[in-house]
Amino acid sequence: MKNLLKKWYKLATYLLLLLAFLLIGFIFFHNNKALNNVISSFFEVAENRSFDYRQVLKTIHSTSVPSKDIVILAIDDASLEILWEKYGEWPIPRNVYADIVNFIEKDNPLAIVFDLMFLKSLKSADNIDNILANTLNKYNNVYVAMNFDGVNPSVRTPENLPDRLALDIENQSNINIKTKYSFANCRLILEELLNGNVKVGMTNVIRNEDGIIRKVAPIMSYKDKYYPYLSFAVGNDCLRADNTKFVIDKKRNLITNNYKIPLTKDGDAILNWYGPSNTHTVYPMYKLMRQMQGKDNVEENDVINFENKIVIIGTTAMSLHDTKSVPVQEGIYPGVEVHATFLNNMLDNNFVKKTDVLVNIGIAFLVILFVIGIVMFSHSTIFALLSTILFGIAYLFVSYYALALYNIWIPVTIPVCLIVVAFAMSFIVKYIIKSRDFEYQYQLATVDGLTELYNHRYFQDTLRKQIEISKRYNQPFSILMTDIDFFKKFNDKYGHQAGDAVLKQVAQILKKNSRTTDYVCRYGGEEMCIILPNTDTDEAYTNAERILQAVASKDFRLNSNETGNVTISIGLATFPKNAETPQDLIEFADKGLYYAKEHGRNQVVRFQDISNN
Prior knowledge:
The chain is of the alpha/beta class and about 625 residues long. About 50% of the residues lie in helices and about 20% in strands. Helix 1 packs across helix 13 and helix 2 crosses helix 12.
């Protein structure tokens, strides 16, 4: 139990020290705005890239397929060439789209969506524009695209849009759509379409700093009103939702009736990709044109049926430059497939949800705690390193499967960095604690607990080493053997607590009056020894006299009320003058001490003084 508590204490110590390092680093980087921006940008780019890799792996290994209810009628390179040859111009006459709508509507499609903007045209095309507008307004399931921009009002006057296009939004969250998705101007489409029966959605998409589209805003702002993204407007109707009222709840979910879209703090929806380009069902426009001319010109396998389909009409031809960089295997999508992906996410209710700040903090804390636990409970550095690497790999797998199975984007870059930092810092802290433990154990093994002098064992080891040094460098050294006079009577009179107090005070006097190179030790009981390296008999005698006087002149505190005087006796022996072995040196110093105590005490006696007598 004691060992377990000790380990948990160390774990808490590791954690507190590591958190202290992280807090200091956070404060430093936070106050340094330039460095903070660089680091934040690095982590953002790295995290986005990690998300892209997960998306690519997901699309490669996922068994999920895009909805067959969504089809793309694509003006691809082949279709563009045929249309160009037939009509001699691009864009093609708008009455052609009117004919296409009328033809598709015969199959009762769920919706027809134009990812094309029918802007104001030349006066000579008024009749054709009227044909287009009258045809599109005739149906209740046709959608056309429009675009907001930031053109200066001096170049183009910002026009008011019809109230029917705006959304009623109740925002209960901390998202401010106007911060990122507010626009100052717009490009108007045909007035007959704006004020008619056709439905209008916006096509604005804001890329990340690296130019890749990962998120799309379902709602954007213009002149303090809210307008839908084109695919959002289509999906809302196709889900038979009540599109008169939208709520963004406190958890940042865009809700209307029976579905919800998780939004980021900026108001984006993170797209969940299904695969590379052409993953959705794509029909080239030229095949439909041939079918419109008569089934005799079309093979049976090429007959297109649009019953209960959502038909998105747009360009995929590379020469028309409507391509986007997206996080899929090939990395390139035509804009019409971005719309298809958003719409598919709505129908499947599988937008990606990014974990919020509190969850990320919890993940970071658990990662740090786990790595600290690995380091603390591992007795082998190699085992701890391999375990940490395996933990990092396991975390990467968890992050992948969280996205693949549950559409959850959990952070990777910061936790992986924290794994590295926590591992390194834990080893540093562990080294510091081990060093302190070693110092503590060393102190317990070498220092006397009462007097805080070196103990008897340390004295014996040091004495042997000093003899070797003296022999090697031909230098003398001396030892002083001290004993407190009448210490037994003193203990009997004042008690053992007073005796202990005297021992401590005498020990401090010996340390204070010795050189830093000397070794002051407790030999046993009230006896203490001092080893004086590179010191002959005369110099040692002078030092001993100084110590003797220092002890005799001090008032010793015996308890809280009494003080008294204490004297010591000292025996001195020198190597190699008096002895050549540790045992003899101790014996001769002890004889000098005994002689001093027998002849009056409170004096220093050298061994040669006894031998001469």
